[in-house]
């Protein structure tokens, strides 16, 4: 829920601040929602977390660079193999980004998402970012699935 964002940001900052600074990340990138999902929900939970982290840690957010190009099925009912297949070609680098004409603008980024279950979403986003020229991709999430 949207109203929980501040609580989760405070928790993340108090537990991850030192690690986040050690990454030397230049930017926080929220995992994007497809425009249809955004219209339905009215907000992107990963973007709320990224903006809160940005404010607390003085690290900029780029929520325009990485886009979700496919309206994929919800991941929660899929197994690991289905999750990876579901996310193939789901993300890309925006051609509308202010910096799209340049070489990839960041060497180190932190992806921000709400839940890490199998790693499929983070892996799909990381692949796109690295193919575009990003050297190091780190990630932070609020929750992690069992078994990790």
UniProtKB/TrEMBL annotation:
Residues 88-143 form the Phosphoribosyltransferase domain. InterPro entries: ComF/GntX_DNA_util-trans (IPR051910), PRTase-like (IPR029057), PRTase_dom (IPR000836). GO terms for molecular function: glycosyltransferase activity. The keyword Transferase applies. It comes from the Bacteria. Keywords: Glycosyltransferase, Transferase. CDD domains: PRTases_typeI (cd06223). Gene3D superfamilies: 3.40.50.2020. Pfam families: Pribosyltran (PF00156). Signal peptide: none annotated. Belongs to the ComF/GntX family. This is Amidophosphoribosyltransferase.
